[in-house]
Structures are given as structure tokens and as C-alpha cells.
Amino acid sequence: MTATPSRMTRKTAATREAIIGAARELLDEGGPEALTLPAVSERADVAVQTIYNRVGGRDALLMTVAERAMEANRVYLDAAYAQPGSAVQRVLGAAEAYVRFAKERPHEFRLLTQTSSGSPAFERIADLLDEQTGRLADAIADGIAEGAVRPDIDPRTTATVLWAAVSGVIALSWRADRHRADPDVLLPLLAAAVGEGLLNPNPDEQKCR
Length: 209
What we know:
This is TetR/AcrR family transcriptional regulator. This protein is an all-alpha fold. The chain has 10 helices and no strands.
């Protein structure tokens, strides 16, 4: 029989969740710069020392928020890969889900893509990237097996290129100079170019092999 958590344990967990929730709200409203311990303390209505006791310092708080962002990003992609359709449709659906996450949760997206190598979360985020590109590579490999995707490309390398291209287009929206661009304009062009580049010009011939 599973023991019921004590009142103190439940209160400690609730306080920790309130702190993390406040940090995520501040990140959504103002980016990483807005996520300071005094601001989180005020938003969560707890003492700064309580933040240290329940989560840790600012780096630990950022890492925790990044981990939650990783979980949310996975939910977006899980839903995309679960959709019925061809391998090519899964590739395009995953790209659309990735872009949707970036648009709906921009500061969390930036936190995942701009974490420095000195951050404790760096390796965990790198693991997420490996997972994402691995799933994308599997879909591309399925497309090759179906005959829809050209057989002369390496799925893993192609998945990395696609991830980098989409991330790069999204990053243009963060620029403050004349090179700033609207992803909604550029991404359809990228999708069209990628689609043309991936598709097998002789699908029937590939199926017969």
C-alpha cells in the first residue's frame, strides 16, 4: 500500500511548483532577463531564501524552467508524429509543430536554443536535440523506404540540416537590425524548397528495388 504524502511534503511540493510557475510566467512576459530571484519571490509570494531551499539559485531555476520547456516541446512533437499519414507528412508535421512551439512559447524556445555550454542544463538540452533529430531521421528513413524520399541522402545528416534551417529562420525574428525577418513569410518558402529537395523524382523506380 502506497503511503500518503504528509501535509508538510505536500506543502513543500506546492511551494516548489508555485516558484517554478512564477519563474515561467516571468520568462514568458520578459524573457530570461526578467527572471530574477527578487521578481520570482514577489510573484510567488515567498522569501528569496525559500527559493534557494526549494529549487536553488537563479541558474538552478533557469535549468528547471528549461527542463519544463523540454517536456512541453516533446508534447508538441509527440502530437505531430502521432498523426496518421505518410513519412513525408510526418516530417512536415514535425516541422510545423516545432515552429508552433517557437511562436506560442518564444522565450522557452530561445531558452532551449541559446543555453550556453556553461549551463548545467546544456547536456540535457543536447539530449533533447539528439532525440528530436533522431525521430526526424527515422521519419526520413521511412520516406526513403516508401520511395517518396530520394535514396541518396543520409537521414541523420538531413535531419540535422532541417533542424538548423528552421531554427535559423526563426532566429531572424529576434534580430534588431535590418536583417530581421518574419518567419511566417520565410518558412513556407523553406518548406517548398525542402520539399522539392527531399522528394524522390523516381518514386516508382525506388519502390521496385
